[in-house]
Design brief:
The complex is a heterodimer. Chain A is mainly β. Chain A has no helices and 11 strands. In chain A, strand 4 (31-37) and strand 5 (43-50) form a beta hairpin. Chain A is globular, with a radius of gyration of 13 Å. In chain B, strand 6 (54-58) and strand 7 (61-66) form a beta hairpin. The chains are: A mainly beta, B mainly beta.
Chain lengths: 112, 110
């Protein structure tokens, strides 16, 4: 199936831990994103990558470090997790920069 | 000032009625406009996109764009209970940045 897939789907971890979320798309898109959706369902862009290059970093704390080994993959590593990091993180991709992103199924991160 | 604004709702309409969802945006240079539907616990799904002033129809959905007024709307005709979801307005402000409104919750009563 063509899609944006991300793992894991659920992540429960303690404060201070480090965790990673992986994302892969087989749609042939050049642009990939990370979005964060908080408890009020507000979807906020975090990072945009185009052809493995970081294009947008929306004033995200440097505890969050994205990595794109190739244009089909975009991973997100989070250091020193805090309670406020609890949210659903969505990976997305788009064919061109002005096309609507296609979203993965999300990773629900809970920091306890 | 929020860049994309929507009424959070909930908007409640009876089955078979027209649901009207509205959105305003602040960046006059925005070129691409999208409507997403998000069911509870699911990811956002693109249902409509519009780039030019005027109306664009796709089945029961009509997107309307007025760049002079910086206004985008979505009409859902013959609303069904399965249309009950949160509808997110999104705007590409140029480059690789698509930003979202907070969403409007729609309830369609059977």
């Amino acid at each position: 199936d063509t899609a944006v897939s991300q793992t894991p789907k659920y992540l429960v971890t303690q404060m201070g831990n480090d965790k990673s979320i992986k994302c892969e798309q087989n749609l042939g898109h050049d642009t990939m994103y990370w979005y964060k959706q908080d408890s009020k369902k507000f979807l906020k862009i975090m990072f945009s990558y185009n052809n493995k290059e970081l294009i947008i970093n929306e004033t995200v704390p440097n505890r969050f470090s994205p990595k794109s080994p190739d244009k089909a993959h975009l991973n997100l590593h989070i250091n020193s997790l805090e309670l406020g990091d609890s949210a659903v993180y969505f990976c997305a991709s788009s064919q061109q920069m002005n096309r609507g992103p296609t979203f993965g199924s999300g990773t629900r991160l809970t920091v306890v | 000032q929020k860049e994309v604004e929507q009424n959070s709702g909930p908007l409640s309409v009876p089955e078979g009625a027209i649901a009207s969802l509205n959105c305003t945006y602040s960046d006059r240079g925005s070129q691409s406009f999208f409507w997403y539907r998000q069911y509870s616990g699911k990811s956002p799904e693109l249902i409509m996109f519009i780039y030019s002033n005027g109306d664009k129809e796709d089945g029961r959905f009509t997107a309307q764009l007025n760049k002079a007024s910086q206004y985008v709307s979505l009409l859902i005709r013959d609303s069904q209970p399965s249309d009950s979801a949160t509808y997110l307005c999104a705007v590409n402000t140029g480059g690789f940045k698509t930003i979202f409104g907070a969403g409007t919750r729609l309830f369609v009563k059977a």
